[in-house]
Amino acid sequence: MSIRAKLAWTFMLLLIFGITAISSYSILFIRNYLLNEGEKQILDDSAWLSITLRNLQPDEQFETNLNELALASGYRIAVYDRQGYLFAEAPYHTDPEAPGLLDPDLAGRLSGSSLMIYKNQEDNGQLVTFTEIETDNNPAAFLRVSIYKDQIYEPIKTIRWIIYTGMFISMGLVILVSILFSRSISRPILQLEDAARKIADGNTGQTLNLDRKDEFGKLAASLNRMAEKLRSDNLELKRLNQKQRQFFADITHEIRNPLHTIAGSLEMLQAPNLKPAQRKKTLHTAQQQALRINRLFKDLVTLQRYDSDDQFIHQQPFQMEEVISLILEIYEAEAEEKGIELSARCVPVMVIGDKDKIEQVLENLVSNAIKFTGSGKITIQTAVQDGVLLTEVRDTGIGISAEHLDRLFDRFYRTDKARSRDKGGTGLGLAVVKSILDAHQSEIRVESTPDRGSVFRFILPLA
What we know:
By secondary structure, this protein is of the alpha+beta class. It has helices at residues 3-54, 62-73, 104-110, 149-152, 154-200, 215-269, 276-308, 320-337, 355-371, 417-422, 429-439; strands at residues 76-80, 86-90, 116-121, 126-132, 142-148, 316-319, 340-345, 350-353, 376-385, 388-395, 445-449, 453-461. α6 (215-269) packs antiparallel against α7 (276-308), α8 runs parallel beside α9 (355-371) and α9 (355-371) packs antiparallel against α11 (429-439).
């Protein structure tokens, strides 16, 4: 059964039960009200009839007058003498319940008192009163007044039909309103279900337009936000997938070139008439390419740990000056060989960070500076600013064009691919630098002017 049918049936049954219960209660309430009013009326009318009967004369008009009283009042009247015998009844012989002889005990209770005895007779459906008549004008001593309850309930038949007619009309309206209301309620539900199914099938471009201010409107807005988030996530996944494919293609390319060089060197070394100088050069070339592959995998391991290891860095206080001094020792000979002045101006302070990883950052920055500086100088300097240590690596090298700065730290990105490979680069050095500094919640900044040099900056918190 559809939700529309369930809603319609639920509303119809609830409202029909409600209308039926209210109608039944109304009829019962009116019935009791009429009976109570009938009881009060018969008591009042019995007193009035007893006073009227006192003045009737026992002549040939007695029964005629009595009958007129009965017709005018709507009651059945029976008159008894002092001995309790029935001697007059009106309307004529229409009340089979009126006894021919009054109960002596009842007559004794009525005699000499102003008592009016009322009986609600359940067995015959009558209301009855007994009253003593104190008169010397006629032989009447006791008055019996009665009326059938059906006469009292007579108006309720009309009321019942009015209520039942209204009830059936109301039920018809309820059914109509329930169907319309269930359609109104179920329509947005069906629209939401259809939209959710399309989104689940991958149609994240689905947009649900429900101009409502209720919960359905809020749910539609949530679905639209979910679809928008899924669209954004899909685009991001596509971008990452494309980047991953490019990443593996770059790895393959980076490994293929040095392997080809090593393979060629091995073939050349097998030549029987190879000169010693040529043999030495060939061995050196193979060794450099092997070192290049080793650096590539070292950088890949670093990046993989950054992507997956929450404990990528272990921060503790260390002396930045010691790390810079070590870098100077490592690259001093290489810088001198190229005629580059390598120097440092350091502030002796303690910082918080992973000493080994920061050493790797400086090593990559200085190594890059040496590769792309033909002659001139490279300077590492530090300065304390606002509770942090600013570290800069300056060079007077070839510089970087503005169009390359946005992608400079992407993995395997090179500003000049041919020249970078000739210099033994892996294309991952700056990506490793950025990953390490990101893990330190720091940022690598670069300023560069072509043919004038570059400046790389990062900060670390003071210990």
